[in-house]
## 1
Amino acid sequence: MARPSSAEPAKATKRKGTRNMSTLRSSQRARKRANDREAQRVNRATPKETIERLERELEEAKAIQELIRRNKALEDEISRLREAMCFLAGGSQRLCVRGPGSYYYYRYKKVIEPVTVEDLDPKAGKLSLRSHYFFSDLSHLACSWSITVQDKEATEPKGIDLPHVAPGSTEVVQLPAECLSCLQAHSSRDGWLDLSFRLKNDTEWAPAGHEVAWSQVHVPSSSSLGETSNSPSALLANVKAPIITIVPGRLIVSSPDSNAQLIFDLVRGGFKWTSEAGVAVTQGPELSIYRAMTSNDLGFGGDGADWQRCMVDWARSSVVKSTWEQDKDDDAIGNVKVTTEVRIRPPSLSWAVRATLEYVVSASLTVISVRAKGDLERRESASPSPHVLPRIRLDLTLPRSYNRVRWFGRGPGEGYGDKKDASAMGLYRASVEELHVPYEVPQENGSRGDIHWVRLQADQGIGGTPIIEARMVHGPFNFTARKHTAQELDRARHRHELKECDELLLSLDLAHHGLGSGSCGPPPFEAHRLYAEPFDFTTVLRLVDNDESTGT
């Protein structure tokens, strides 16, 4: 084989990226040797420094964990002290501190109270007082009365002289003449006689004035007032006819005298309501049948498994048809009526709730009545369908700035059909945060029951939101106002996992399935079960000028 010609260039033998030290200047060689020595030092020191750094971070993490543990212990201790305060002294105002435990204690206190009132005769002014003591009479207790009138604050309490009531016995008590006069003066409205039993003297377990028991007796109105403000025809005022504008998928109703406006979504349902004072409703109302599960629902005696099997939590509302018209009657000139047919159904089963929502808007755009009428539709198939529903309600979305709530109904704590004995009828105020009950495991909470009306408004000093009021024509209802969706309450397993919405969610319940005790006992009693049957109810939404008058 012939050797390569000496004229051919020799192939490079150096590795790519290397540099011959002989080609470097002396300063470059010195710098390279220094860099190599530094790299060797770093390589030797890095493991030791890394270990030391990780050990320091581990100690810091342990210290943080200890702080978290101590903080949790302090929070638990504060919670226990608050619950004890509520149990021992909080009853004096029938209020309890925030937290589910304190409300449990107050409910327990109500159930075991040693004095109960029975058989009130308003005309004769007599009632029966029963003692549940085994050894003591009632001489250590002072009794006072007050009157709570529908939509009004309770009167100042005044004393009643109690007869001798032996342990375990029942005695008839004659009400004072002043009490009878007060009942008679307010006989045109529903009223409630409030009786409070308090310690006369200090004891080892509670101070004088501590409320041992209380009772509230309903006194129905003695006469019919005819058409009340709950009636849509009484609230829908006759003023100038509004301006109607139609755009694809929208019906815009505007006031000729102000900036008030309603934008109906004829495709998805609901409306956006804006008044002269600002936005009142951003979306809704939407007919809904679901609420978040409770621990009782998911227990062996609850109905949660049936709801999950029937995919009630997946049921969504969709619009089938929308129509509208403007009244020309003499009594309702300019009132706008929008009728929407909706269907609530899960994505893959055959059952559905078919309903009609009829909106009647006053010409002034300050009052809207919403009539919801529907029934559960079942098809002959193997597809399962629910026999009881979690609830029947209207859901509205309001601006987040709404934070103050005022209502006449049961309170101050949450109340449901089978969980309201410790809640008294009255006029209450609370923030949206105070309505929420922070159960350890997030679930349905915070409903208030036997509501005559509820009002929401922004905190003082925050403009751009009018005061909005809700009532139901058929009678009392339930409401919840919260910043968490039902799906979010179902999803979270701990309180810190709850994510708040950007807006406020207001729910107005016609009916609510009972809570029962399915986590460790039977389901709700028959009287508190919400069977899937036809429903028909009307809700009246109204904008009011100020929150001092009840507008009744």
## 2
Amino acid sequence: MEQLLKQAGMKVTRQRVAMLAVLAQQHGHALTADELYEKVNCSTVVDRSTVYRSLAGMESRGLVERMDRRDGTACYCLAGQEHNHLLMCVRCQKTVPIPGCPLHHMEESIGAATGFVMLGHTLELTGICPDCAAKK
């Protein structure tokens, strides 16, 4: 993680190293800044504002990728990992990752057909989770 920060021209701090380590452990499942803050704070003391500032810097340097949920919440994952898309409950906002990416080949085809340089995509499916459905 230290090497990634150095290559990106960022100062190596224990908080940034911890943040990248947590994101790497998610295997493409994106976390909100608050979720990342909670997970990092289990092992390293970090201010919430540090998480937000570091994520912005890491995003601008290509270390993390940002995905925006339909509700406007930003989620982050380590760049270069195969990403997952989300299934979100419209009642309680619970999210469940959808493993793999069914759109990767479609993205390549669309880029080739249109001449666009594809930068990425987001997909969020919505529904009602089993817990909320049981409450009716």
## 3
Amino acid sequence: MRQLFILLCLCFNMGAYAQSNVSTPASAIHNFMDKRFGMFIHFGPVTLRGTEIGWSRNKEVPADDYDSLYREFNPVLFNADEWVKTAKDAGMKYLVITAKHHDGFLLWPSGVSAYNIANTPFKKDMVGMLAKACKKQGISFCIYMTVLDWHDPDYPIHSPHDTLHNVKGDMPRFVTTMKSELTELITRYKPDMLWFDGYWKSPGQMLMAVKFISI
């Protein structure tokens, strides 16, 4: 049985905390290290503004403007086969797509959250097309998934610049939503690797990673 390699990319505060709770097989780590070179794609509606995904929300781009960009997001020139071919021709052995970044937008048609690509003018399943193209061209397909969401009213932080927590947030409900989205990604697209991000906002939630290894 193929084992899913869960890479805990814990920006800003990467330490032994999560590593002590998740045991990744040595063979999986060596396999990833052997690949050495891959493509990491940050992509979403904010591409229309040319600013950083997630982090520019309520900074370079006002939150209301940022959150409405999906209504005009229509990357008609997107071609999954060409993206993957570009990576492969450059000698890359894996591709990572930001299926969900901190802005909360989903690049797949989710049954969990309406803030997803099915509700854009583009409508197509970008994650699914990239997964299929990677399999066809023989490189590893990997998914980046944040464990925080500044767009979700249940998450206690709504901006990277907030200093106060949202007292109306419902963290247990947010965790249920996040886990349901993650389950969709794993069961639909069978990624070779999951790349988590967002630990510094709520360290205890990283423990949930172990629950998905067997899916």
